[in-house]
Amino acid sequence: MTAELFTTTITGAARIGPNRELKRATESYWAGRIDRSELDKVAAGLRRDTWTALSMAGLDSVPVNTFSYYDQVLDTAELLGALPKRYAGIDDDLDRYFAAARGTSNVAPLEMTKWFDTNYHYLVPEISDEISFTLHPQKVLSELEEARAQRLPARPVVIGPITFLLLSKATVGAADPTGDEAQRSSTNPMSRIDELTPLYVDLLGKLKEAGASWVQIDEPALCTDLSPEVLAAVSRVYKAIAADYSRPAIMVTSYFGDLREALPVLAKTSVEALGLDLVSADPDAIAAVPELRTKHVVAGVVDGRNIWRTDLDKALATLGTLLGSVGSLAVSTSCSTLHVPYSLDPEDELDEELRSWLAFAAEKVAEVVTLSRALRHGRDTVRDAFAASAAARASREADPRLRNNDIRARLSSVLSGGLTRGPAAERLIEQTERLGLPALPTTTIGSYPQTSAIRVARAQRRSGEIDNAEYERRMQSEIANVITLQEELGLDVLVHGEPERNDMVQYFAEQLDGFFATANGWVQSYGTRCVRPPILYGDVARPTPMTVDWITYAQSLTSKPVKGMLTGPVTILAWSFVRDDQPLAETANQIALAIRDETVDLQSAGVAIIQVDEPALRELLPLRASDKTEYLAWAVGAFRLSTSGVADSTQIHTHLCYSEFGEVIGAIADLDADVTSIEAARSHMEVLEDLNGIGFSNSVGPGVYDIHSPRVPSTGEIIESLRSALEAVPAQRLWVNPDCGLKTRGQAEVKESLQNLVAATAAVRAELA
Ligand code: GLN
Ligand code: ZN
Question: Which residues are annotated as active site (predicted)?
């Protein structure tokens, strides 16, 4: 291939829009307020603006097809003709696509799970025998055409076949058209790998015809531990895809880690370029691979997933290590900037120092451009940018907010006191006596639907139209509504509904020292759902109680127990942009100490049940087996630090969701929560068997229905779920709850679903009696 070499690029870009335009448009489309052509217009405008900005900033190769209406893995399933048959009856292609993403009233969506160790969620392709792969390249071809019409050096990006299959799950197929029976089959999706090779060859030929000189094939899964069979498949598939035929030059891109044994395997194929994550990988190890002497190495030296300004001197040194050892060198980000906010521009409330320490997507693009110039024309040609980077680093290192010696001293004294509570069985006796709950207690995970009254109140407080007292009064009235609703429904353990929380992490971050919130730092979490992670820059301290007033207010309205709701230390860490100047474990413990202080205050206020949510426990799990034990030890330690300050008669709940729990199952037991509510609706109770397998004997609430879909579960379905849960867990330690918080759902659908949940529980209680 004789494609011209590029020097300056990024791995991929966000698509939700600098002001979440795509979110708004897509939700309007779903609600029937705008039609397809209006939605397409917004999307095309965002693509055009993104590409223009990247090319104006100085990239000489611009990634395209990183746009998505929902998720890039779902796009790939569509590209490869791998959508399950249950969606085939939906005529409109976009509605079919959204049905796979979200479900409809009569068809279940694909399962959703975390994208590697990030807080982005992808849809898990289902591979069954009924699928025969076929190529549907319309999306990538039309985006390429759009970009070329703009005269951009467009580089289409697609997910590679190995990653696609490694992220898929095998199912037995659509015996049941609703997808409820889409159980795992024992066939490994990877056994289908050779069927994909001709499709990629076909795709590359078509992209070449359409004018692409480079194509990027993303294979982040190659940064995980691979079996010899998978490594053999990598070699076989990429030798075939990179064979000599009319095709564009190929860049295989890996991220979120280090390729290790996959690096020489890829390097021995004829792909022209490798995109490498140089934030994770050791440049000396890369420089030592002889086959790279003929490759174009696209070095991801600017971290695509944190928000700290790059140490330009260090990055340039990394590039220098590679320079003589590889064929040619381009500068890039370590991964797509999907994981960071668009730009620092709207952040005018940050103080000068803080701001100087940061780089969001636009600033990272500028860093890539600066490094590329330094590499090609010498550091002196970009002297000012290097000086600013060094000055920012010095200002950060010297800032007094980074160290709070009182907190450090208290932390070590609490840690030396030990983190164990009384034996779980004895705690259960004390708690049962105190709470007096029926068998199979019913509860919810915390949040209730975000009503328009909540949104209005928040907007009016922001604009100054109402003061804090009025805002609090309105939130109290929301709490009162939610308590009334739960009493009417007949739930056993109530929640206050979390109306005052904009977000389960940000709410705490705003009240803790060591964090600051961004004004517009949104990143996509899944589909149209965006989050605004706070920035954790210094030592964490809790100046005053954060939740006690709200919970005691809720408790004052009812004689049923109301759960105190807290977010756990690992989740606060995972859903923030975290300081990179000390080990994560240390930061986790500082957060845990603040949460521990809160549990003690809740207990003193008379709260009998406290839930400490850790939905992100699995998310931070390192991708390599060799790093997992150490992580789990400190993550569990931080959770126990946060929950071991209370009496044995106080019941600690935790909540976990969004993931395959297999690998962290032992850690779930080590958390030693009295009750664990856990997502199980979408993964069909598999988790209970896993918990039994490790001898877990505390109480558990496997989610009996999926809240990620608008579908209302029938009473019969929930009865079935409960019966199957009872096969795995005795009634004495089974709780009944949805699989996650309800804040993204509509009020009517929540009421109906919970009615069915309570009715189903009553029916199953009767069977037990
Ligand atoms: N308590 C939170 C809620 O109900 C938990 C959210 C989550 O698990 N992501 O919203
Ligand atoms: Zn959840």
Answer: 708
